[in-house]
Model the fold of this input.
Amino acid sequence: MSKNLKELLKERPSDAEVGALFHDMINDGARGSILAGTSLIEDVLEGAISHTFSHLSKNELKELFEGTAPLSTFSAKIKIAYAIGVVGPMTRHDLEKLRELSNAFAHSARHLTFELPEIASIVRSLNALKDVKGGEGYKVQHQFVESTTLLMWVLVGKMRTPVAKVQGIDHLD
Done:
């Protein structure tokens, strides 16, 4: 990967880019929707974790999250977020299910869709979907997008909360 592209990908997306991602998630196929949504959630989760490590320098955070660092994978971020109380068990469940979907879509040569029972079942198991009014009647792709939106706001809220109050039960738990 070229140095310029690496630097671009390290930057947090702007509000306009996040809006464009959600537009894409609604209009893309399942693979694009899942990969865009989970990438966004992983990025916001990293921000929520970093917020609790506000005493660390930029370089120290880089040593935790970049390359082959201990928190460089989505799985590791989910585990540490739960361990330090950034998320509770229901949000952890949803994050693990998103990771499972992301891995399936990123690493499978199969044509996966939201209509496949195996995919639909995972999306419908998301706890965040319970907070979507009328969500059970939505198409599976829309359920995924709505659940991802709620999870994003839960995690963004963690970044806007004083560090002493970040730990504990989130609204999903």
Remarks:
- The CA atoms of residues 50 and 58 lie 10 Å apart.
- The chain has one domain: 18-166.
